[in-house]
Specification:
Elements (H helix, E strand, L loop, with lengths): L1 H21 L3 H9 L5 H15 L1 H6 L6 H24 L2 H20 L12 H16 L3 H10 L4 H25 L5 H9 L1 H14 L5 H27 L1
Length: 245
């Protein structure tokens, strides 16, 4: 069983480095492969806890660039979505959760690779809608990123504004996501120990990502990451479909 934890350690380190550089991608990188080894509730717990413990590094670095109005507009619906997602996680078959997570990774990556934007991104209702689905996906699949990443990309936020505002919202929604999961009794003691064991990997990856974020072309880096995510997402989706048969 030791290889499973070594595999998780490496994936968390890579995911943290990616998110430290690109401001998104932690859960998109680690969720599909980790779902091959752990139950959805375990993976979601790990993602939320590691986000809370490590993302302050990015938050401090980009604090002056945070746009607070979008965060305030997304926050209330993000809370509602967090409890809705926790309910789904508890009552849906784990294979459906795994397939949904992988499908979200693939579709989000393809949309961003194609340079497409979501319709209505400039409307006042867009942030609350993105906040709800982000909160729901956070607790249901461990991936809060896609709705908000697509929204901010469509609004063409500058890199530092994108990083700071995204991280501020992730921090908020992760706090309430953990509360929602505890309320549904989805957080087990073993999951907490596993998450703490992955903390060194998350910290190492985050600092590496921060270091290289100013030394590598963001556009090229994001493109490579998105291509890799398509591959990992398809792998996870195929594995989930096999388990449904």
């Amino acid at each position: 069983m030791d290889w499973i934890y070594l595999f998780a350690f490496v994936m968390v380190c890579i995911g943290s480095a990616v998110s430290g550089m690109a401001a998104f991608g932690f859960s998109l990188v680690i969720v599909p492969p980790l779902l091959l080894a752990f139950e959805p509730a375990t993976v979601t717990t790990m993602v939320i806890i590691l986000t809370l413990v490590t993302r302050w590094v990015v938050l401090v670095d980009a604090w002056d660039s945070i746009q607070w109005p979008p965060v305030a507009m997304m926050a209330p619906t993000g809370v509602v979505g967090s409890f809705a997602g926790a309910y789904l996680l508890k009552h849906l078959d784990s294979s459906y959760i795994k397939f949904s997570a992988s499908a979200i990774v693939v579709s989000t990556s393809l949309i961003m690779l194609a340079g497409r934007t979501i319709p209505g991104a400039q409307l006042p209702a867009a942030p609350p809608v993105a906040g709800f689905f982000s909160g729901m996906l956070n607790t249901a699949t461990g991936m809060a990123g896609p709705p908000v990443v697509l929204l901010f990309s469509a609004r063409d936020y500058a890199t530092q504004v994108f990083r700071g505002t995204l991280t501020a919202f992730f921090y908020f929604v992760s706090i309430f996501g953990l509360v929602a999961m505890v309320s549904q009794r989805l957080v087990q003691r073993g999951d907490l120990y596993l998450s703490l064991g992955m903390l060194p990997a998350a910290l190492i990856g985050t600092y590496l990502g921060q270091y290289f974020s100013r030394r590598i072309s963001q556009r090229s880096f994001r493109r490579v990451v998105l291509i890799l995510l398509v591959g990992t997402g398809i792998t996870g989706a195929v594995a989930a479909l096999r388990s449904l048969q």
